[in-house]
Amino acid sequence: MIRFILAFFALCCLLAFGSMLAEEKGYVLISVSGWTWEMNLFGFFFVLLIAYIGIKACQIMLRLIFNSKRNFSQWREKKAKQKSLLTLQQSLQALFNHDFALAEKLSLKNATKSPIESTHYLVAAEANKNLNQPEKVAQLLLKAESHGDEVQKKLAMVKSLVTEEKQDKAISLCEELHQAHPKDAHVLNLLAQVYQEANSADKLRALLPQLRKHSDLSLNQFNTLVYISFKPAFEQAGQNRDKTQIESLYKQIKKWVKTSPIADNYYLASLVAAAEHESAEKALIKILKADVSEQVIASLYNLPLQQPNKLISYLEKQIKAHPENDNLLTALGICAAKNYDWQLAQQAIEASIKVEKSAKKYALLGAIYEQQNMASQAKSAYQHGLAMALNPSGNSSNDAFLAEIATERT
């Protein structure tokens, strides 16, 4: 129809142009059922133009009228989606603030109108998990399964199996999902979580390369998984007195966390458990050469070294070069105490306290005094440590615990 009108319009233009060339205005005569219209060509052209504009205006108005209902429905649907996403954001904020009841309420409020309905149910399930309501968790996870793609459904099913403590089935299903989607970050993260809850440290350790490459875990989260996966292996190697395995595990863990007191602690503890005291002492000297940190000092407290003479000799040489190094003095005091050299231990800890006081040092000094039957000095040291622990300014988080031990001893 439009093409016909445009063709007729073009024809009229040609006629008008021809009449201008011939210097004849021309006229148009229309006679229908006794009605007669007569006008010149330019007037007829103008009438046609007005008629065309009128027809198009009517067409637009009719289209707006008939489409207004559909446009209004689309507007309402859009507003409902925006509202549902806003309540989802509020529910996540409540979840982070540990207001789990509010998080559940907000996440389910407009869930059916959301473009990501399954996410609402997953947030509600997480809130109920923290509220210790496993039945609701299972129901919400099943709802999440029916609203999402195939991967999301299976992930929700795995979480449901974990909630029901069916670890074997959860691992089997999640491993199948991982084989189908080896680079999916959500699948990898959930598989690592399932391995962790099932205490499958070996499988978690084998998963580390893929987690590093494809997951969205933060560095701290990834390091935590590294420690969890390696700790049982170090303990087992120590019990088996397998020094070769211990050395191999230490090399592997250092690939993931190059500088880590926790990894050093696993290594040293496993060597001591394997009765490799000389190797443990050499390794500790090497670690101290690299970094005399508070974390290394803390590991010395719990490390059952036997006659660490080489370590004591090394520390004494270092102290001569750095007589006011607090960590070196503390390390010497701890090693001397483990070697039952109470006098040297006392001198080292007293010198360390002069450099920097702490409740932990006073607790250790009190124990050293006790071993030498110096009851009054031990009581005084414990009282000083307790006073420092009760004053939180400038004290570490471990001081309060050590002060409680000191209180029990007095």
* Physical arrangement of strands within the biggest beta sheet: 1-2
Major sheet, described briefly? Answer: 2 strands, antiparallel
Radius of gyration: 41 Å
Q: How much helix is in the residues?
A: over 70%
CATH architecture of the domain at 149-217: Alpha Horseshoe
Query: What is the oligomeric state here?
Result: single chain
Average residue-wise pLDDT: 80
Q: In terms of per-residue confidence, which ranges show pLDDT below 50 for 5 or more consecutive residues?
A: 395-410
- Please name the CATH topology of the domain at 149-217: Serine Threonine Protein Phosphatase 5, Tetratricopeptide repeat
In the CATH scheme, the class of the domain at 149-217 would be Mainly Alpha
Count of runs of 4 or more consecutive helical residues: 20
DSSP strand tally: 2
Structural class: mainly alpha
Element-by-element helix/strand order: HEEHHHHHHHHHHHHHHHHHHH
What sort of overall outline do the alpha carbons produce when their principal axes are compared?
elongated
Distance between the termini: 106 Å
Approximately how much beta-strand content do the residues carry?
Answer: under 5%
Main location: membrane
Transmembrane segments: 41-66
Protein name: HemY N-terminal domain-containing protein
Pathway: Porphyrin-containing compound metabolism; protoheme biosynthesis
